[in-house]
Amino acid sequence: MENLKTTTECLQDLVAFHSERINGYQALLNRLTADEHHLTTLFEAFIKQSIKMKLELLDMGVQCGLEETQLTASGQFGLAWSVVKAVFSSRMPSYALDKCRSGENALLIAYHSVEGTDGLQPSLRALVNQQKREVIAARDWISHFERFCSHSVRQQLAAVS
Fold first, then answer.
1. CB of 138 within 8 A of CB of 49?
2. 127 pLDDT higher than 90
3. Are 125 and 105 in contact (CB under 8 A)?
4. Is 53 exposed, middle or buried (0-12, 13-18, 19+ CB in 10 A)?
5. Which residue, 3, 55, 99, 107, shows the most beta carbons closer than 10 Å to its own?
6. pLDDT > 90 in the chain, percent
């Protein structure tokens, strides 16, 4: 029974993280400036990724005998979730990629925390590990876009000089 409670809480948290990530990237898409529209494909890919991961987590919950309504209820969240929510809902001026990197780092903290939780079923631990690697890959794409953007800016400055 205790393992089911732990499993439920972990799944609730990760489902909530992905819901917030989806909402965050949708909000960022709506606020892109003209010179940031090259990020549209990246943000849409992250939205699709979170939808897929969220469905996988919900399916895992069903396999554990839980109902979807139990998994979409409020989780324990904690500091990492607060950071994701604050990063994506912030109106403070910053570059979209800065917000993405901060949000992805907070999501990785959550995955690391869940991965280290005692009492998880092996199938859930394997799914969490797989999704964590996918989030790491997403964060690497952000770094790639940051390098691309800074290289593009340097080229524009050189052309003006």
1. yes
2. yes
3. no
4. buried
5. 107
6. 31
